[in-house]
Every structure is written in structure tokens, then in C-alpha cells.
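Entry 14. Structure prediction run on the chain below.
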Amino acid sequence: MQPEEGLARLRALGFGEEDAQELWAHFDGAERRGKQGHGHARIPWLEGLEGYDPSAEPRLVEDEEGFQRWHGGGAIGYLVLGRVVRAQLERPPAHARLVVCERTFPTGMLGHHVRRLAEGGLVGVLTATSPARLGHPYGGPKLAGTNPLAIGIPSSDGEPVVVDVSMGAVTHGDVIAGLATPEQLVPFGGEQWHKALALALGLQLFVDALRREEGYGAVLLVAQPESDPVPALRATAIRLPGDD
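Output returned:
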């Protein structure tokens, strides 16, 4: 999909120019990194998605030293986290800050958000909940979302390390993009699947314990780095997570 088509389709959904550009940057960035499930396929998916207001603006409802609470206010989760990340970069914490995001869905490729923080010199750890799609690989009810965990670490060499791991053997985005079937969406790990399911449940309960309203949400920890560990690790000549 070319930018002209993608942006036109996002504008047609009612997004303003700035928001359309931000969404396109997210989708196109995912596509270029080989994450097709979070890339251009998400635009037709959004065209059939209900429950969000393209004109809504997320709200900062609590702001204390070391803590913030945001509410999506009907905005789509991509843009809620976009606003949250922008706010952290504009006013970073003195040391660390926990940010709880209510009514924030869908959130897209979480690595996109922590990469922006890391490029701005901040450490970021981010998780988000989603509809229950993971259960016992051999059957039974779905218990947890794929609930990814993303970590961004800045580096003095200008190339942050970005770790972004979903708890599924494939992602729901892969199913949307036609790259996998729903039956393949099980906890990763083969015979050790219980470890991924435990992580998914733990992350889901972590977010749910901190939110006040029903619905999907996200939790971000953002902090100032106290050291610069990435260059020494990169000097080992291995390919690090998030490297192009």
C-alpha cells in the first residue's frame, strides 16, 4: 500500500491530518520491519472496527510525582499511547514514572512506542491487554489476550535495543493479515506452552489490577537511564533485538 492510499483511507475514517499521519507512520513502520500483522493490513481492519471515535482526544486525569493515569476517552488505542509517549518526552520523569492507560485499545506494535521513548533517551517497559485469545493448546476456554511485553533501552550509539514479544506462537495481527490461522494462535513454547500462558495471565492481571474501568488498557513504566549498557553488548557483534 502506498502512502497516498493509506492516508486517504485513514482520512476517510474521520481522522484528522496529524492523527492520520501518526497512524500511517505506525503501520508503515511495522510493515518495513517485517511485522505485516501490525502493518498495512491494519487499515482495512480499522475500516471494519467499531467502538472508537476518530475525533476523540485522550485525557490526562491524574498527574502526580512518579504516576500518571490517562483515559482514552473514546480515542483509538494507537493514538492514546501516541499522546502518552509524546507527554513523557515533553516532560520526562526525574527518575521514573508509572503510567496507567484506561480504555486503550487497540495499541498496535508496542515496540513502536518504546522505540520512540528510547530514541528520546528514556527507558520504557510497556504492556497492554486485548481480547482473550490464548488458552490451553489442547482446548478449553480462552483465558488471556496475547498481551505483549515491549522494552526499549536507549544507547549512546544512537541505536536503541527494542524487545517486543507477544505471548502467542503467532500474533492476532498475523491472523488479520492472513499469515496464520486462528487455530495457530496458541501460547508459544511448544511443550513449554504453560510458561507463555503464565506470562500472559500475569501481565493481564497486572494491567487489570491497576485500571479502574472495565475494558482493555495498558501500563507503561518510563525511567531515566543511569548507565549505557547497549554499546558494550553490541560490540559482541551479535544482532540485537530491534536492529534493522
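Residues 34 and 241 are 13 Å apart (CA to CA).
Filed with the rest of this week's runs.
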